[in-house]
Design goal:
Blueprint (H helix, E strand, L loop, with lengths): L8 H5 L4 H7 L5 E9 L12 E4 L2 E4 L5 E8 L4 E6 L5 E7 L6 E4 L1 H10 L12 H9 L4 H13 L10 H14 L18 E3 L25 E6 L2 E6 L7 E6 L2 E4 L12 H4 L7 E4 L4 E8 L3 H19 L5 H17 L4 H6 L11 H17 L2 H8 L7 H19 L4 H9 L7 E9 L2 E4 L2 E8 L3 E5 L7 E8 L12 E6 L6 E2 L3 E3 L5 E4 L1 E2 L8 E9 L10 E10 L2 E7 L6 E8 L5 E2 L10 E3 L10 E5 L3 E14 L5 E9 L2 E9 L4 E14 H4 L7 E7 L14
Length: 713
């Protein structure tokens, strides 16, 4: 599961004043002057040929590398760009600027802007933008991204190049580390490391449990909206990234129209803004009886709502000094403009391509949007709109130039693969279910469910697995919705499957899981470390509104085999199909465990070679020795031929280390080194008072291996 998390707990704990948020979203057209210092340029570059571009125009750079630019103080961060004599983008900066400040355009500011301008992140507001900046800087791959940009600058080239595989890979790594959730524990103490080794904890040690499941990246969804009961009322609240649902309630031969508004936020920025959704709406029961609720995302109103949110995702990158309400008004005007000129954004969202290989991506829709926006600016409606709302005249040509460069940066984002692409679909409200249906009874002042379900085991039963480790295959069930009259009815997305285990029967990764549009739900099962007998996992269906159990129980079983001291688990992005990523481990005895040598006498073995993805693949050691275990990942083959995000989880006893990164096509990526020290036999140490010292770190001088040395599959 992936969600937006912070790389430092201090970011999470900061309290936001709600009144400040309200004030900051009011109309604000304050023009401010900033002193800009240009840094990190090659010595031979002619500073006099450079221009700093902002929404308000362009300024030349003085001989001392400084200039003054006019920008705006509003509820969105501002964007400034440095261009050369050929109008190529060299550096940029994005931030919450204030009157009289001195800000810099540098390699570091460019790296921060490059990450935060992504449409999934661009909606972070000015008053909390520093949180996102800190999150980005503290990611373990940020320095790698800085160096890739610095190399482009040293060569006198623009970093905006989707063929720059070094930059793309570094950027993808940062995205993987930002757009992810973690359940690893904070180590009791950090190990003492040699000077050439650094820790590779690439994400925070706090799981944001309330964020888990808000998105549907991993097929788990706690939405599309939250429903509770209060006396004779049903209370609905939309999650931040859910579109408008047109609804109806049928009862006593009457049909009431009842819509649920879309979430107000865009991107995954609700985390920073403490915004969890729309205002609550209520439906009150008029009389006793059965009520059938039906909500639909495939309506003209909903598609229009999705279209304007998509436009706002692009506009927010520019930092226009407009309030939320004015930004939505501008997007409404743009939708009408695009429709009149053949940019059918609503139709593009509405009509899926029947060919699965040609399915429209979030970026396809985004291209339509920014193409229409550029025409909107070029043909004059943008300037007229600003004048109509009482705003002073802006240099529309400059805004157009800035947007064109943003479009160029988008080509870099499209080259990334993994979590950020999945979040992009969620940002654009493409992942929520088309329809939601459920039934409720109201009698004697009590609300109960009017829906039942049947539950069947689909896969994952009767597995064998290592004691205390996660089973290879997920446990999966199929839910069929049964109406109040006993017949099969439209599948309800408000079913939830509850997975539970008795004592010493292990744990389920997710205890309550939403069904997907086809009625399937799944979780992963980790066996108990103290039970060598058959273990059992139970599943039943509950109603999300009332919490009632509405199905019979089904039971899965699993048989533990032997215990493993060390487990390395590789998983990669579920958004990258037909993608073959391989796990490699070199153990202290020199053995190399991988697809070509899946077992060895040292007790290590690879359980399987997944050639399509998304894993998991495991390498286990049942007789782990002291010493170093070097972990690598290789991108063997894929349709993408690009950079793919992955996660490697290393487990030893109760210790867990999670590393997220990405790997280029046909490249090796060194993940890190697990070192077991102290006792020569790690297995014995599990039952002795003295446990071995464990550390996981990154060695700068770790051996480099060539994919050419690997056998063909």
């Amino acid at each position: 599961m992936m969600a937006l998390v912070a790389c430092n707990e201090n970011i999470i704990d900061e309290t936001i004043n709600e009144q400040e948020i309200e004030d900051d979203t009011e109309f604000n057209s304050i023009q401010i002057i900033n002193q800009i210092e240009v840094k990190d340029l090659p010595e031979n570059m002619q500073v006099s040929d450079l221009k700093v571009l902002s929404l308000n125009g362009e300024e030349s750079v003085d001989i001392d590398g400084t200039t003054k630019v006019m920008t705006y103080e509003g509820y969105l961060p501002q964007l400034i760009m440095l261009t050369d004599s050929n109008d190529e983008l060299l550096l940029m900066a994005r931030g919450n600027f204030h009157e009289g400040e001195t800000n810099e355009i540098s390699v570091r500011s460019t790296a921060i802007a490059l990450v935060t301008m992504h449409p999934a992140l661009s909606g972070v507001k000015s008053h909390v933008y520093h949180k996102l900046e800190q999150l980005v800087i503290e990611c373990s791959s940020f320095n790698e991204l800085e160096e890739a940009i610095a190399e482009s600058v040293r060569n006198g080239q623009s970093f905006v190049n989707p063929d720059n595989i070094t930059l793309i890979n570094a950027l993808n790594k940062v995205f993987e580390q930002i757009v992810s959730a973690t359940d690893e524990e904070m180590p009791e103490e950090l190990p003492n490391l040699d000077s050439d080794a650094t820790m590779v904890y690439s994400s925070p040690y706090t799981r944001i449990s309330e964020l888990k499941g808000v998105t549907t990246i991993a097929g788990i969804n706690v939405g599309p909206f939250h429903v509770t009961t209060s006396g004779p009322k049903v209370v609905f609240e939309n999650y931040s990234l859910t579109p408008l649902y047109s609804g109806s309630v049928t009862h006593h031969s009457i049909i009431d129209n009842f819509d649920i508004p879309s979430g107000g936020d865009r991107g995954i920025t609700f985390f920073f803004d403490s915004g969890w959704g729309s205002e609550k709406v209520e439906y009150q029961f008029a009389q006793e009886g059965e009520y059938q609720f039906f909500f639909d995302k495939t309506t003209t109103e909903s598609y229009y709502d999705q279209a304007r949110h998509t436009i706002c995702n692009v506009l927010e990158v520019l930092g226009l000094p407009l309030s939320k309400g004015m930004l939505f008004k501008l997007s409404d005007d743009m939708v009408q403009f695009m429709t009149a000129r053949g940019f059918d954004i609503i139709g593009f969202i509405t009509r899926p391509n029947p060919n699965p290989d040609l399915q429209k991506t979030a970026w396809d829709i985004t291209k339509i949007v920014y193409g229409g926006i550029i025409d909107y600016i070029k043909e004059g409606p943008f300037e007229r709109f600003l004048l109509e709302i009482g705003y002073r005249q802006l240099a529309a040509q400059t805004a157009q130039a800035v947007l064109k460069k943003v479009v160029g940066i988008y080509t870099v984002y499209q080259a990334c693969r993994g979590a950020i692409n999945a979040v992009m679909r969620i940002t654009m409200r493409l992942e929520s279910p088309d329809n939601v249906a459920f039934g409720l009874y109201y009698y004697q002042g009590e609300i109960t469910t009017a829906t039942k379900a049947s539950l069947a085991k689909y896969s994952g039963d009767n597995q064998e697995g290592l004691i205390g480790r996660r089973l290879n295959e997920p446990v999966r069930v199929k839910v069929t919705t049964i109406g109040s009259d006993g017949s099969e009815v439209l599948a309800s997305n408000f079913h939830r499957v509850k997975f539970k285990t008795d004592v010493h029967n292990g744990t389920a990764l997710d205890n309550i899981v939403a069904t997907d549009p086809d009625g399937y739900a799944q979780t992963y099962w980790t066996l108990d470390p103290d039970n060598t007998g058959t273990q059992y996992l139970k599943a039943s269906v509950i109603d999300i509104v009332t919490g009632e159990v509405i199905s019979d129980e089904v039971v899965f079983s699993a048989t533990p085999t032997q215990a493993a001291d060390v487990t390395f688990t590789l998983e990669w992005s579920p958004t990258d199909s037909n993608c073959d990523i391989d796990l490699h481990v070199f153990d202290p005895t020199g053995h190399h465990i991988y697809f070509g040598e899946m077992t060895c006498g040292c007790g290590g073995y690879l359980d399987r070679d997944d050639r399509q993805g998304p894993g998991p693949e495991h390498i286990y050691y049942t007789q782990a020795k002291q010493g170093k275990y070097l972990v690598y990942v290789h991108h063997y083959d894929s349709d993408t031929r690009g950079s793919v995000g992955f996660t490697v989880t290393t487990e030893y006893g109760e210790r867990r280390f999670v590393n997220r990164s990405s790997v280029l096509y046909d490249e090796y990526e060194y993940v890190g080194t697990l070192e077991i020290a102290g006792n020569s036999n790690a297995l014995e140490s599990h039952v002795t008072a003295q446990k071995p010292a464990i550390s996981f770190y990154y060695e700068e001088n770790a051996p480099v291996f060539s994919p050419k040395d690997l056998p063909k599959k």
